[in-house]
Write a structure and sequence with these properties.
By secondary structure, the chain is mainly α. It is about 60% helix and about 0% strand. The chain has helices at about 1-10, 20-40, 50.
Amino acid sequence: MQQAISERIGSFTSPMLLPAGANSTLIVATALASLERALTLRQHWLIDPDSTWSDDE
């Protein structure tokens, strides 16, 4: 399958080669940022308007 795609579209070679430690750091940072974003959206003003426009103000 990969060969058929690369024959039609072409292949990509990254111009940068990072060491394994840098790749691991980027993977962990991406996972943590994704988790933080998902948890933040749980209490977003647009998603949860009941807590934003309450009569308590």
